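My convention is simple: the sequence line spells out the residues, with the fold written below as integer tokens. I include a record here:
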Amino acid sequence: MPDSAVPPTPAARLHDILQLRFTSLFAALPARMLEPISPANPLKRLLKVAGYAGLRLVGNMFRPVRNPENLRGAVWLYAVSQNNYDSLYFLRETRPDSVLIAGQSKEIGRYNGQVNRLSLRRKLLYYGQLPEVYRALRHTEGERAWRFFDLIFNAIGYYEVYRRALRHYRPRAVVFANDHNDDARALLVACHAEGVPTAYVQHASVSTNFPPLGFDLSLLEGQDALDKYRQCGPVRGRVALVGMPKADSFLARKNQNTRVQRVGVACNTLDTTEAITETLAYLLGEFPDLTFTFRPHPGDQRDFAFLRRQHPQLQFSDARQQNVFEFLQQQDALVAADTSTHLEATLLNLASVYFRFGTHAVADDYYGYVAHGLVPRAAKLPELAALLRGYQQHKPLDLYRKAAYYNATLGTPDEGHSQRRAARLLDEWLETVA
């Protein structure tokens, strides 16, 4: 049955869909990170809106969707990124009635040609809501409604076209790996309105800044995620702790080296280019006998080619082509700031160190890894060097045990079998909602 709790007005629905965009955390993101999402200059925002209208809204109308698989009555695995695809693919292999889908024109990295698409050709028809929606959000959100006007514009129509798709295809259920992106939340709200069962497979560490957990079944990695979601608001539906499905095939191959010889350095878009450059120069100078590999986040658009010229000995990992676990298997230690790669590294028994590249005020131990003792913090470069020298002399073989709070199957008979556990729970749940 449709969910009576679905927000009744277009403005209320848009607020629900965009709620992460209106948080103080999002507004405080560094300019270099926020600019590609929503430009600070009002004229650039308007030009972005015009570009979206021309390329996406009008452009989609002239690109009919022809899917290779039948979506009708299937279990939909909804992906909004390459990481989402990696996190859900195991269900595609275990359930013949499942299909991987994404919104029309959604960028899924190397999997762009391997997902079915939900048509957004009719999205343009719903822009008559814009004046009413903007006035209402201006009243509740103040200046942030104008600051993020382009994001409001982009989000209009998702809910309506997704409701139409749900009525047309009548999927058996929709499984998500993202709970906070605009299009994913629009589909979730549409599912609630149409009475379509929803499930969620956690694909990365979560934050207390996320929206409340709103699925009928949530398959979380461990107690950390559940504790954080309880701080986000009421938890809907059933929750099970299943470990990390995407790590299954790697957990049996934990790092057995007792001395660090290879160090991965991972950055994301919060980290400043200047601090990254300084850190790498320092580490390469201090540790000429160690092999360092630099890995930018897959969504980082900066050109780091200058690092190759400055440091010919520095190796690189392309996150758009190399799975994070494949990268970590080639390392003995990791240096990074606010990224869930710390957890993945610890699961493989790497010596992982939290080190901030820059002094931005947005996040400090964002995932709580330092606070919960998963990884040590190095505040300054000499402290980082001291930790690495210690691990260079001796790296313990039981570092992975620190991750038990984050991965419920660690040290249990289900360790390395999270995919099987998650698939079984999903099967059992589907039998009850069919």
Q: What stands out?
A: Residues 315 and 354 are 20 Å apart (CA to CA). The mean pLDDT is 93. The first strand starts at residue 75 and ends at 78. The two ends are 12 Å apart (CA to CA).
